[in-house]
Amino acid sequence: MKKENDTSGTTPGKPKKPAKSPPKLTQDEVLAFVASRNGRVTKAEIARKFGVTGNDRIGLKHVLKEMLARGTLHHGTFRSYVLPGQMQKKEDPVISTKGRNPGTKQGDFSLAKGSVRNDRRVERNDRMGDREEKPPTHFIGLYEPLQNGGGMVNPVSRQDKNPIMVGEGKTKDARSGDLVRADFSPRGWSISEVLADRDDAGMVSLMAIKTLDIPDVFSPEVMAETQGISVPSLGKRTDLRDVPLVTIDGDDSRDFDDAVYAIADDAEDNKGGWKITVAIADVAHYVKTDSALDREALKRGNSVYFPDRVVPMLPEALSNDLCSLRPHEERACMAALMRINENGHLVEIKIVRGLMKSVARLTYTEVQEALDGQPNEKTAPLLDTVIKPLYGAYKTLAKARADRGTVELDLPERRVFLKNGMIEDIISKPRYDSHKLIEELMILANVAVATMFEEKKQEALYRIHPKPDASRWASTREFLQELGLKTKPGLSPKPADLQALLDQVVGRDEAPLVNDIVLRSMSQASYSPENIGHFGLALENYSHFTSPIRRYADLIVHRALIKQFHLGNDGLTDAEEEDLVRIGEHISQRERIAQVAERDTINRYIALFLEDKIGATFAARVSGVTRFGLFVNVDPMGADGLIPVRTLPEDYYIHDEKRHSLVGRRNGLVFRLAMPLTVRLLEVEAGTGRLLMELLPGQFGTKEPTRERRFLRRDRPEDRGERSRSRDDRGGGRRR
User: Fold this and answer.
1) How far apart are alpha carbons 339 and 337 in whole angstroms?
2) Looking at the domain 614-729, which fold is it?
3) Sequence-ordered strand ranges (E) for 11-106
4) Over the stretch 386-405, which tens digit does the pLDDT of each residue have?
5) Sequence spans of domains, the chain
6) What does the pLDDT look like over 439-497, one tens digit per residue?
7) Which ranges in 116-235 belong to alpha helices (H)?
């Protein structure tokens, strides 16, 4: 990359031509001209006004770029410039997001999967339901000093398109590579805080925390409420301390909020059935409604998990101590005591508030190895009495799951291994039967609780998942049929129909992308007091009960149970019941933000991992198709990259949205979703996690022009005209 003032492009031995004197153009003159026009002004109009021609246009470009960075000018519509706060003219269209693909030229396609961005520059127009751009008031980025004083802050969010400039004396002693926050005032941009030193191992996750405004510090008022609290005595609680409950979590988990136990049902009328206990940390005992702890937990909505840290919903005194079901320590709990029959159907449920003592902290790997005949010293004593009965209950529940036809998406999770803050490896997390065992027991408890709410007419929050949108499904179905997959006719599929599709690609190379396509065809799950069922799980009643340490929705559910079954005076209040719609919407949004933060951080780690691999080639598959290029997914690390349309074999490409493809007008090349490609890594932006790639030449035979053929085409007038028309057709021509 060329450095500032780089003169390496000059030819040695030849005298330099005298530089043409640039026109005497100041920022004040530009501002006066823009103001005199009382509307949008293009760069071409500014150039004509001040007689800027030829190479001097480069100087004008730098003047305008600096004014944008300082905030004295803003971008208007149609490649124009406007003054800060200048109102849109009536003829200017309001930019609407309705019905538009949220992909951008910068490659932020992930929003098409339903994520919600926390864009501080966008406000909601309640009357129109449209979004209008507002200038930013603060900016998060990586600082780079300039030779002439001051510096530049390069964005780390894909929502921020350009860097900003900070003047001399406004850099707060930031060093090259530091993560900083800059704030805007009438005097321009200045750095207000150095968020992380360039050598800080935690900088990557901090980028997501700061760009998405995720609260990561607890106030003194909140921390004060954690002082002096302790585990309650038995009192009126149900004594579960003799039940051999165990926790089963990942080997890197730090909080344990659920414990399980199962035993064969000995009742004569339920042969082949099981008695199952799911005990959950009693967070409601410690977090009282409208306390400082409660208000902060609601504000956060959930915990956010990164490879190097957790931003918890609750302070560590609760999340990692009093509400963590540590082995051999007494803990307050809410427990669902359930019975299922031989078909996996729930036949009895009882909710108690208890006191428990876990007998062991197990990991998924340990339990799986024990099931596979390789128990260790911790699992061996529990194998016959605890682990095998749990597995027996799981097999019965799995049968019921298969019978009702749920959607089993196979979407591997990526795990980043760090060592001394540096990336050691990136792998897909394995998925064992032990994972599914816990998943099924948690689903059972969530169903049992939601069913009780329905029967008792108790106000609470449900976890809802609407049916797929009919128009979206029609487009998806048509595309899947083109891949040779059989689909059932109908406007709206059943969960079993989607699972039948997924079963057709098991073991095939395109299986991950078909799973992803099916995921995109579905709506997003959310929280609501209105129960419409859960489509993906094929369940009529579903709530979240099992993770109140890390999800505020579960805390609300616990309070609703306490109220319904008179388990204390700290149940759901009337005010909370009346506010459930707003609470559900808020925590659903916070969940989306957490998902974006976690995904963006993984992408940044992957980008860092690939920084020294520029020029390397990879096998990939097309994971997204837009008018401006192809998104590809690289195995095995799951890296996502963009191949810009301008780098494809030279042609005019038509974007077929229905068939998720780009089609070459002359060469007949078709690039479509799930297509295998060989790609080369061109560029890495570690700050944003963006990867730029190109196709490796020679993949498409005679359809792909050679470099020589491309050169000759530029010399043919008819081809130049064709390219010009093509740019106008696709909106790529210069607007006047």
Assistant:
1) 7
2) OB fold (Dihydrolipoamide Acetyltransferase, E2P) (2.40.50)
3) 41-42, 74-75, 80-82
4) 999 999 999 999 999 999 98
5) 138-200, 224-381+392-400+411-457+548-574+590-603, 614-729
6) 999 999 999 999 999 999 999 999 999 999 888 888 888 888 888 888 888 878 999 99
7) 203-211, 220-224
